[in-house]
Design brief:
413 residues, binds glycine, six-stranded mixed β-sheet, alpha/beta, single chain, FAD/NAD(P)-binding domain, eight-stranded mixed β-sheet, 7 helices
Length: 413
């Protein structure tokens, strides 16, 4: 078999596979540390960030059994102000970063009991949140339904516009000298008798060589051909349908902060942007690579959102879209070196990709420059799944069929 053609330029220190926000922040931070860095993705800045609402919700999105992840989420939340300021400064982009806080509300007795439990968990975890009566919730957000029975005010959970974040990271990478290959990575290239990752081969057969390869393809991270099964990340796609509506600018804001609820067991959030966009999300569906927007998904989101904020049915519905969260077996990301020499992971961020962007960039830059994970990221080493990892989805077979870019809207992380 003839070997694939090489690119003529010298091999970079690092090649990041995947140009979603996680791949981009990894490439940006690596380049800032002086590493010659390249990135491969057919559409850098695309991926799940094009769908995500952008809540920075370490406190309101806390779940039982995720205390370890909470520490990383909080570490990233603390970095956000400086991270956003630096990114805005180097690119001149407005990131839509709003330090507006979040209100999580309950509509019936079951939802209220659920919220009380969440409050207790937050308090046990030393997090700041304040219980409010229904009346106090409506005083903060007058457009809430009269039936709201109580809520949690969390002033530390903010938001950013993930589309703007992704565009700014593309610009930051360009300014930092990251070489971007607009191509589909087809398979991992191996050297030293299959014992070291040496680059990737793209769909047109070009070999892109690099000192190290970082796999950051979001929900597709488990599908790159050529990755040995024992280091293939156990990532699965978890579909989320999200709506976008337009709020009128004439009568003051419809909502002042992010509003969340669990409506009859379904998590719901409404994220109002300064631009006038209102993001309503999200379904959570285990349907493989399906990104169809369904009548049922849109109906349920609108039905629940209407129960929470009746006035939303007056608004123009401007967009419906589905994205794929990169789910991992413990809902936490996989960061850093794998058991294959030269191959690192930055994937599996599941519900927290936007929140975890700053800390992921720092962790990966540290791992790429020192070979070690910083203390805060040690619980997220990919090796934690090596012994126990079982295919959670048919995609996790040794040589999965890789979907063509046109079949998937979400290649990137
Ligand atoms: N973090 C919001 C979501 O995953 O829907």
């Amino acid at each position: 078999m003839s070997s694939p053609p090489h690119t003529s330029s010298p091999a970079p220190d690092v090649l990041v596979v995947g140009g979603g926000i996680i791949g981009l922040v990894t490439a940006w931070r690596a380049a800032q540390r002086g590493l010659a860095t390249a990135l491969v993705d057919p559409e850098p800045g695309g991926g799940a960030a094009q769908v995500a609402a952008g809540m920075l919700a370490a406190v309101t999105e806390l779940h039982y059994g995720e205390q370890t992840l909470l520490a990383l989420n909080l570490a990233s939340a603390r970095r956000y102000p400086e991270f956003a300021a630096e990114l805005a400064d180097v690119t001149g982009h407005d990131l839509g970063y709003r330090r507006c806080g979040t209100l999580a509300v309950a509509l019936d007795a079951d939802d209220r009991a659920h919220l009380r439990e969440l409050h207790a968990l937050q308090q046990r975890s030393g997090l700041e949140s304040e219980w409010l009566s229904g009346r106090e919730c409506r005083r903060l957000e007058p457009m809430l339904a009269p039936g709201v029975r109580g809520g949690l005010r969390v002033d530390g959970d903010h938001q950013i516009d993930p589309r703007r974040l992704a565009a700014a990271l593309v610009a930051a990478c360009e300014r930092a000298g990251v070489v971007v290959h607009r191509a589909w990575a087809d398979r991992l290239a191996l050297g030293r008798g299959g014992e070291r990752a040496t680059g990737v081969v793209t769909a047109d057969g070009t070999l892109l060589e690099a000192g190290r390869v970082v796999l950051a393809c979001g929900s597709l991270s488990g599908r790159l051909a050529g990755v040995p099964e024992d280091v293939l990340p156990p990532v699965r796609p978890v579909k989320g349908q999200v709506l976008r509506l337009a709020m009128p600018r004439t009568h003051g804001p419809l909502l002042h902060r992010t509003v969340r609820a669990v409506v009859r067991g379904n998590p719901l959030y409404l994220v109002p942007r300064e631009s006038g966009e209102l993001v309503v999300g999200a379904t959570s569906e285990e349907l493989g690579w399906d990104t169809t927007v369904t009548a049922g998904g849109v109906y349920e989101l609108l039905r629940d959102a209407h129960e929470l904020v009746p006035g939303i049915t007056e608004l123009p519905l401007t967009e419906t879209r589905a994205g794929l969260r990169p789910g991992s077996p413990d809902n936490a990301p996989m960061l850093g070196p794998t058991g294959l020499d030269g191959l690192l992971l930055a994937t599996g961020h599941y519900r927290n990709g936007v929140l975890l962007t700053p800390v992921t960039g720092d962790v990966m830059a540290h791992a790429l420059t020192t070979g070690e994970l910083p203390e805060e990221a040690r619980p997220f080493a990919p090796g934690r799944f090596t012994a126990a990892a079982q295919p959670a989805h048919p995609a996790h077979t040794a040589h999965p069929e890789i979907p063509a870019p046109s079949e998937l809207s979400e290649q990137s992380a």
